[in-house]
Amino acid sequence: MGGDFGPSVTIPAVMAILAQYDELRFILAGNEASLLRIQQLDDPRQSERIEYLFTEEYLDNQVNPLHAIRRHRNSSLFLAVDMVRNGRADACVSAGNTGALIMAGRHLLRTLPGIERPAMMATLPNLQAQGSCLLLDVGAHINSSAQDLLTYARMGGIVAQYQLQRKPRLGLLNIGAEVHKGTEVIKTAAQVLSTSADIDYIGYLEPAELFAGKADVVVCDGFAGNITIKTSAGVVRAIEALWLQIAGRNLINRGRALLTASMFKELQQTINPSLFNGASVVGLDGILIKSHGNTDSEGFQAAIRQAVQEIDAGLPGLIGAGFAS
Amino acid sequence: MGGDFGPSVTIPAVMAILAQYDELRFILAGNEASLLRIQQLDDPRQSERIEYLFTEEYLDNQVNPLHAIRRHRNSSLFLAVDMVRNGRADACVSAGNTGALIMAGRHLLRTLPGIERPAMMATLPNLQAQGSCLLLDVGAHINSSAQDLLTYARMGGIVAQYQLQRKPRLGLLNIGAEVHKGTEVIKTAAQVLSTSADIDYIGYLEPAELFAGKADVVVCDGFAGNITIKTSAGVVRAIEALWLQIAGRNLINRGRALLTASMFKELQQTINPSLFNGASVVGLDGILIKSHGNTDSEGFQAAIRQAVQEIDAGLPGLIGAGFAS
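Above: the input entities. Below: the structure tokens describing the complete assembly.
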């Protein structure tokens, strides 16, 4: 039900993913009329792999997360997260109210031992090299402490180590590379990280360096991280819109744009924000994926794929084991 | 002397600007050998409009701004700002150490009555419409209070009112549009702004909306603002680099790219970060422009043009009068 477009985006994404993964099954939580109206049951084999959990209650973005637990326990969002808690589902994917989702995750799934707060972890493309970069926290918690940043660093480090099978390079997002830059929280975290043996700490990174392949993991406060990913996506979308404006101005431009269409497609396949949609809520005893609320079906599919990867990796178990050792 | 490239960028920019403005004169502060080595005195009329203030001391980015006042009073940066204080210069443009420049500005030029802290104000392009958007603070101060944000709002409002000759639309940068989003500082500022008569307050803006022409002024903490402008510029540069990679891969791509070169040029003229270089340090009794340290000659020229515009507008006087009334 979540996100700016609700089932009109999430259900087509589910249908597309069903066609790509044979063994995947979905439980759709939400309003009966809304879900059934949009679902297109053209392939009966697919419908066998869909169950429903109907509820009338829906928790929109205007709901203050602080009120969500007390007043909205029967919302589709809470019920979906609760299916991960009780083992009926292996992962939950939602484009809904971020704060409420984090709250539901902390309350129902609980954080892993040694982790006070979960973080939202995004995957960013490296534009100048192969590979990608994990950025966390991108919005689970604003006003992170130095201890929070260290927890994020450790979680990101465990995930990157698993993905890359080598010691990951870790940076702290800051407004400059010099030691005197940044908040006291960042400076304190930097001091601790610079003496860490598990991690290849490379120092402060400025936002532009996020896309340059310098680091495998970058850690920041949830406010700064959220600003970073939303600015990045916004600039990409704005450039696309501007290019379409220029390309559509007259016949000559249209013809020229057509000739470079395949090159543009390649560019888009590297930078399209939809392909990097789906932030992992790490640090919980269960898999929870937050999709951007404003995404399209392609973006929601990417979020579902992120969930599948984390089920395959057994991500909460990996992080739990890392913190236990 | 400032910035990543020093006189090799700043002096060619000065030469280019001299050729464009007949009445402008420059005083270059810095190391004698460095300045004279790079200056190309091909046009004697231009050299008549250049004076020098030589000093051996240079304050690099590694210097902690807190030590700058005590230990580096004879640095080119301090001497340049001091020329604005004593009336020898109408404005100071620097690509040097941001923290030290703000410190020198506060210490030598002083803030205007009613203003506790200056802010760095950037101009962002509207990509989907004509016009631009003022964003402040982009890095003069991290950890802004609600009162700071209100001061920034008032300063930005005065400048936008002067530029647009109408009541400006003002937004607060936040991680979501909903009232429960953001820090306590942002929520407090929003409450006050929503009752303000001088300003058309339009609420919270997410970063992607900065480029959409929704607001004339957007206010934020210096950390978030700095992250925003550096992420924006970084994404634009990364996309350019990626396009050049794709376009240069083979002869066919090169030919196709050539056909769309004029369209690309148009795109770049709207979004090229260099064209928007030059943040105005507003709130001081004097004109101070901070250029990005990593900019090229074109970018430094934009910063100088920003200074010329502020001299013409008498910006400190405008802001002072606004706060006095």
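Note for the figure: Chain A touches chain B through 59 residues (CB under 8 Å).
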